Hints:
Layout: E1 5-8, E2 14-17, E3 20-23, H1 27-38, E4 44-45, H2 46-53, H3 61-76, E5 82-84, E6 87-89, H4 98-114, H5 118-130, H6 144-170, H7 174-184, H8 192-204, H9 208-226, H10 232-242, H11 246-264
Helix pairs in contact: 1-3, 4-5, 5-6, 6-7, 6-8, 6-11, 7-8, 8-9, 8-10, 8-11, 9-10
Amino acid sequence: xxxxxxxxxxxxxxxxxxxxxxxxxxxxxxxxxxxxxxxxxxxxxxxxxxxxxxxxxxxxxxxxxxxxxxxxxxxxxxxxxxxxxxxxxxxxxxxxxxxxxxxxxxxxxxxxxxxxxxxxxxxxxxxxxxxxxxxxxxxxxxxxxxxxxxxxxxxxxxxxxxxxxxxxxxxxxxxxxxxxxxxxxxxxxxxxxxxxxxxxxxxxxxxxxxxxxxxxxxxxxxxxxxxxxxxxxxxxxxxxxxxxxxxxxxxxxxxxxxxxxxxxxxxxxx
Length: 270
């Protein structure tokens, strides 16, 4: 590549030339680029690209793909997109692609959590979250490759949010957790884990009344939107708050962190 170019697909796709972001105005060109980046290092067939771009492909869909590839090469360099039967591939390295950087921060957070550096883990996951800019253009992408990636994108963000809060609570950063979760709960109002964490954060910072208000708000949201009662884990945290049991609250946090450390480790011999 002749220019300093980076690619950002943790949200609406865009190119970053020499540190300056540029939106991709053509929806079809954006879909093709993002598909190649999601499959970085692997060949994506022309038929797969057609399936990502169109629900009902036009008669000359293959010719249209060739034109879009030519336009893409004009923007990022001929050598950036490699022709390989039965389609095309892109290979990006280092910090060229935000997904790769996200993966490094995410892995670093898990390593630090396992080592007992909970503050460091929270910082790593906050860095990962800072790379997320939303979904891939609000559901425009409906092909199988990008639909799967968009689902992973949202799931990975939710995981990082939950892990960040557990790490903050375990590190005794209760006020930081309150600030962080107060921003995250409205974005994920049906996520009971975030409500649990916010209740624990308020209780551990000695704001029991606020913790009870969080529970009441969670109950109303679950009832109004889903017609359900709070789950068992949320009720357990409510019981901890009602009894004003700081010891149980700390043990609940420690147990949650231990569970996540254990679940991240690969079983031996598998």
